[in-house]
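Structural biology now treats backbone shape like a language. To illustrate, our science desk offers a sequence and the tokens encoding its fold:
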Amino acid sequence: MPGNKIRPVDRLAQAVAKCGLESTAYGKCIAKDFNNVYKDKCLAEFRVLQACVAKHMGKK
């Protein structure tokens, strides 16, 4: 790729890597009962993870 452009998927990976505690909390919530996953099951944990990733990607 020309220049120093970072691919969007790499930016996402870097942002997620900075949200270890939030990722762990979301993963534990899903893993608690992985045979019964449904939409919005761990919404609170997901929102916290989403906010962390957005913060580290430089989005509001």
User: Anything to note?
Assistant: The CA atoms of residues 54 and 60 lie 7 Å apart.
